[in-house]
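FIELD: query
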Amino acid sequence: MATLAAYRDSCPLIKNILLLDSEGKRIAVKYYSDDWPTNGAKLAFEKSIFTKTQKTNARTEAEITLLDNNIIVFKFVQDLHFFVTGGDDENELILDAVLQGFCDAVALLLRNKVDKYEALENLDLILLCLDEIVDGGMILETDANVIAGKVATNSIDSTAPLSEQTISQALAIAREHLTRSLLS
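FIELD: result
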């Protein structure tokens, strides 16, 4: 059986996914590459990306830029800046699919109130979202509905009142209780 390293050569890899605010400060970031070994190097990279892209108008659709032999696909939504970075040999369309999946999943999870305040209030959902999209640099999922669905089922709080749960969360809890009662 082939090792994971063999698949890494044929699979597109993501180096990092960044979510920054309108001042270039971190909201949620995930690095999958050792290209930036220290926290200082990561912060310097984030600052250089932000500086290079802040004058662009990537609000309606994603933009692409090249920085330090990395392809960066980015999009701005309200006061949030979404970035996906890949190597200079990666396919821009795949990077864009990851970016679009991330942006759309965040919009679904935040109920279309995509701004810094809501992002910080729901940081746990955004970090789960990152985990569902990419693992170790390998792309797992790009469909926003699937990503948001997995995150929503992972974050079900069965102690929350029924009025504060989504229909799918309430059904999942009801199914769990029914299963437990049938098995008892």
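FIELD: remark
Helices lie at 4-8, 39-53, 92-109, 116-121, 123-133, 144-154, 167-183.
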